[in-house]
Structures are given as structure tokens and as C-alpha cells.
Sequence to fold (724 residues):
Amino acid sequence: MSNASQQRVRVLTGNEACAEGALAAGMRFYAGYPITPSSEIAEVLAEQLPRYGGVFIQMEDEIASMGAIIGASLAGSKAMTATSGPGFSLMQENIGYAAMAEVPCVIVNVMRGGPSTGLPTLPSQGDIMQARWGTHGDHPIIALTPFSVAETFSLTVRAFNLAEQYRTPVILLLDEILGHVNEKVELPKDGEIALVNRTLPHDPPERYLPYRHTESGVPPMVSFGQGYRYHVTGLAHDESGFPTNRASEIEKLLDRLHRKIEQNRDHIVEVEAYEMEDAEIGLISFGSSARASRHAVRLAREAGKKAGLLRIKTLWPFPDQEIQAYGDRVKKWIVAEMNRGQLAHEVEWALCGRAPIHRVTVYNGDPISPLTILNRINQLD
Amino acid sequence: MFNYDQYLRLDKFPLIWCSGCGDGIVLKSLLRAVHKLGLQKDQICMVSGIGCSSRLPGYVDFNTLHTTHGRALTFATGIKMARPELTVLVITGDGDATAIGGNHYIHAARRNIDLTVLLFNNHIYGMTGGQVSPTTAKGKKASTAPYGSFENTFNISGLAQAAGASFVARSGVYNPVQLENYIVKAIQKKGFSLVEIMSPCPTAYGRRNREGTPVDMIAWQKENSVPVAKAGQLTPEELEGKLITGILVDIERSECRAEYQKLIDRLAQS
Amino acid sequence: MSQEPAAKKKKGHVTVREAWCKGCAICVEFCPEQVLVMERGKATVAYPDRCTACNLCELRCPDFCITVSVKGE
Fold:
């Protein structure tokens, strides 16, 4: 291992911290395709992974990258890919496969402006609904949204832990600002990081059901080549993993896929409340927009306004209960995001009209300025 | 008497394929090859895409993975890179591998990654009801080529050869013993190995193109196969419409995972 | 020309797993000795004594219906 990676206090970009977090989480397989603004993740891992005995491979496209990490995960590796909007679009079919076949993996999307080729070098948060609904069919997803370089490290580790614990793809949403900003971070030592690994079966091979309807909703998982020869398919399947057209089996499978996330949502969902104790004006934001929002809260507080920020760290499943908990006190909400109001829609849904929701939406490639948010706060009087 | 049952998931039988489909003949040749090589079931990982032939892994008692359309080679690449000790077999078809999955096909061959690909060429999309494929010959009919295909076709084996595969062979279900031998050699070869297998589709292709019964379609292979050595002595005109069979490529070329291992080892020493 | 015992024709025993037979007739047509016939849409062993255990029917049966054993082995 290089000297640089042994130093615990370092100045890193979000993309570098993501790569370091993945290595710390035990990720030993990366497949990806170059795309701005995510490529530095691949570049760090191309250098580091072979030093860890892990595998880095640059595939022919993002579809292939997603396929390769699913294969590697089934073969027993913690696996990851990273991309940006156009590549994320290409990955969707195989993300759905990973959800259906319950293959743990992590997909990083360093968001840039869209649609289409859009703004390769400029930030956006326009893919949050794609992260939730990008694939066809009906399945839950976990998506995490760090707001600093240090948190990018810790949430990358968490993304792997959640993927392993719940046998699911986990999406880590960064944005161009976070991917490229440099910050000082103190990385934890190896032993200080809690790691979760997939649950192995207690059953012998002849009784193993790879898609058993367990109480937790998560079936134990064993890697290929370990003496448990089983079948994996993206077709609707029964507990044994083989295709079925039986309505009762299909319903049980799809219900369990949802149940394993929904009944554990309190463990999965994380928000950070900043100055929310007595807040009457509540900001909701995430990612690099939350940095501007936090700054705006400080400025508003200096001006004597009771503003606070509810910062979303787990975007999916959506923290609706955490927002609703402030429903009686917060009189007005402002949702700040770098898109045309994707998060605001979701917040409106969560609050069911209990309080007015105002929007700060920037989608022209500029970052959100704290002053823009402060102006919106001031307009509320 | 060969005991196929030891490799099968007998509770999944009978096979999903139509009467007279060649795919079952290939499956049997494959199982004999696996047996001949003495491979353990746990050490085999079989990966397929979508289509008729890609339903094959469901019937065999290996580690089996039925993936998305055209992407079997990408999943297989992940498995092989992560666990090189596994024998990775890829089951795919002409549409799966060379239309929707064409990019992965040429890149897997370019990397010369140690995968064995059995490509079932039936010149049609059978599972979806007989649509035109990249190997449907000009003039042949398909549900989406009702007046006959007007496009040129892929030479699937030639494509793999040009892209860098270290082993390429072509055979057909008429000759199951030859097929078995080629599969043995393909698995033994360290690198990307392709066996292109002519497996007739009597239902979606044969009926529409008046090629007769399954027996007629297999007999056609018998009458029109030209061994590659002999093909060299014939003119292009004489080879028109013929099926050139045999081992087309068998070369030594550096293999992707082995090269990566050298890098890991080199860095571990430095 | 003396008759060596080794040149004696092998005798085979063919069975058909009828439940899986889809009636493609490949075994019937490619049997060099016409051991098999189609009957009510299924392959049936009609002339068992003709079987020389060449195994061609088994090798080409796509549905794992046919087994051929060599008599006396």
C-alpha cells in the first residue's frame, strides 16, 4: 500500500473519499466506464485495487460495468461501479436485475446536469427520481446522499453495509461539486470501521433456499463455488430461485422485496437536524445544496429568524416520518435543490398540505448560493 | 451408457424447448464434455442471457445465472475476474450475443478472458416468435422480415476471430460427437473460446422458410457441411450456402485475468 | 476370411422415456437399422433385435428420452 493511503489526515475530493471509503468497506471489485464528473473514482481504484489484491476493470460501457459487478458480487466480492447521468441511465436494466435477484452492490452516481449529455462538468441533483424509479417494475431502493467529503467516506462505507445487510443494490448520490471539492478529512483507522457482511446460510446445500421468505425479509446468501449450487434469474422466481408464473409466489416475492426495506426503514433512514429545535422555518435539502442551506440558516439566525435545516442523508426510502415529526411546529418549509423540484414534490406528498412548501430550484449549472436561499427565507414574511 | 442425470435438475424436466429443437442435443454434448474433463459441479459457473438457448442453465446442477438480454458476457466477466478458479461457461444465441450483446461479445474476445462461449445459432429470435436476427440469411423470412431479410449477416465465428479470441470452432447438432470434442477443447483453452453451434429452430424459422421437419433441417447440415481444411480448396462460388465446420482458430494469446494476476503479484513484491 | 469373435456385431438395448418425448422423430430417422418407429406421436422401439448399440439415436435425442446400453456389458 502506498504511503498516501496510510495517512489518516488527508485532503481529498469527494470522489477520492468515495474510493477510499469503498476500500475501507472491503470493496474488492470495481468495474466502470469513464464519465465526467465521476472518473476520478475509477482512477484512484485502478491504482489502489491491485495493491489490495482486488480487481479493477474498465468495461466497454456502463451496461457491462453493472453486469460485471453483479457477477462479481455473486462470486463473493463486495463490488461497486461509479458513473454520472448518462451512464446511470444505461445501468438501469441491470440495477433492476440486482434488485430482483437480490445481489448486493453499490452504484455511485456523481450527478451532473441533464437531460441527455447535458452539463458534463456542472452540478445538478436531477437524478433523484431516476434513482428511485429508473428501472421498470416495482421495487424498493436505498439511496444515500452525503454532503461533505468526510461524509462521502462514511456513507460509502454505509452503502456497502446496507447492501450486504439487505441484499440489495444501494445507490450513492454525489454531485459534481461534492465530487470535485477538496476538504480535509480524518479517515478512521481500519479497526474503527464497523463492517457488515452478507448473512451466510445455516442450512446445508440440499436445504438451502436462496430466496427464502425469512422473517427479516432478507434471505441468507452464499457465493457461487461454495458447494451450494443454485439458480439466479431476473425472471419472477420462487424461494428456490427458479422461474415461476404462479400468482401467489410472484406476489410473495415482490412483497418480500419491499418488506425487507420498509420494515427496516428506521435503521436505514438517516437525517440530520440542524437548528431545528425551535425552528419555524424549515429548510429541507441534501448533498451540496445542503451546504448552502446550512449557511443560509446561519445567516437567517443572525438576522433573528428561527430557521433550521433538516438534511437528508438517506433519500430512499424517503424520510417522510422524520419530516412529519416537525409538522406541528414548522410553519413554512423551503426545499432547496439543484433540479426543478423533484424533492419538493416528495416533501409535499409527505406533508399532505399541513404547511406551505416553498421552493428554491436551480438547474442551470450554477450551484445554489446561500444568499438565494436567504432571500427566499426573507420573502416568507 | 452415459449418465446425464448426474448433472441435471431432473425436477425441471421436460425441457422448455420445442419438438425437434437442437438445443437439447447441444446440452447433452456439453455434459459429456464436462464429464470427460472431470470438472466438479461446484467449480462450474454457467451464465446465460435471454432467449431459447439461454434457458439451458436452469436444467443443469451447476452454479447457474440467467441474466439480462445480451449481457451474459458482462456478468461472466465479473465472475471470472473475481474468482478465476471457477470454470465459466456462457450460453447465448445469435441475437443475444451479436445483436443486443454485440459490443460485449467483441470486447470479451478482445480481452481474451478465459470464458467458454457456446453460441447457439438458429438464425432467428425463437423465444419472441421468429423475428429477424443478425444471422438470418438474405431472403429468408422472419415475422419482422415478411418479404425476406434484406440485410447482410454476421459471420459470428469470424467476428470472434477478428476480435482476438484464442479458440473458435463451428459445428452443428448433426454431429454431436464433434461438438463434444470442440467443447472439450474450448474449455481446456486458456482464453476466450467460442463454439458456434448450428442448432435448428424448426418452429420459428424452419416452418416459415419451408425448410421441412426437424429431421430435414438436421439432414441439411449433414449434406452441406464442409470441413474447414476442404473449404480452402473450394471457390467462393462453391462455398455459397455451405456450412464451414471445424476448428477455425486455435492460438496462444495472453489471457486477461492471468495478466491482471501478474500485476497484483508484481505490486505485492514492490 | 476367418470370422474373428471381435468382429461379432454388438447388440444394444434401447429404451425411450416416453413422458419426455416430443415426437420430433430425429431418433427414428437417424437410426441406421430402423429400430425405432413413431407411434401415436412418440418414438417407440419396434425392432429391438436390430439394435447395434451405435448410440446415434441417443446422441441426437434432444429431450434426454433415449438410453442405449450394450447387451452383455
Observations:
- Chains C and A do not touch (no CB pair under 8 Å).
- The mean pLDDT of chain C is 91.
- The two ends of chain C are 27 Å apart (CA to CA).
- Chain C has two helices and four strands.
